């Protein structure tokens, strides 16, 4: 098992500052491995059923490594949610660059192309079941604990606003627009997806992650309502 110092490296000493800087890539890799492990462990056992030791064991690190990156399981939860949304933003920008310029054909919106754009607003299909479980755990925790609820709500508001703006920019590039304001559109899309994802998990609790992905029919209908020509 790999071990790391329990505390952060930091000092006014130039030598120690240089040493801390040199550790930055390693600490980032440690953080990512802890997040990956926590995603699986929390989805399987819930935040109260999963211990910090279980997360550390799954990641291959000591408790010291955990506490040098996160102060608590709650902070780790919030970091998982933020990482997911940031990855969505990066994917969104990539999809926008790859789309062909014929998203609007003969004055009609190509909804398959729009669904390609909107598909990155939700988690990768391979993680659908785990993320549905994680999301439910996080929302319950946020509702029960104000210390988690307040930063979670602020995080959600900021990232959803960024998502709405990013999707709006892509739509405008292709002569399209939302029929409602960007933030409302993203809220509707995420709400419908998350609801159907939970239903898929409840209906088939034993399936693998990829098989738990909710159907696209409802999202497709919502796209028809939310996206139109800019003219």
TrEMBL record:
SUPFAM superfamilies: Homeodomain-like. It holds the Pfam family TetR_N. Signal peptide: none annotated. It comes from the Bacteria. Keywords: DNA-binding. The lineage of its organism: Bacteria, Bacillati, Actinomycetota, Actinomycetes, Micrococcales. Residues 28-88 form the HTH tetR-type domain. This is AcrR family transcriptional regulator. It comes from Promicromonospora sukumoe.
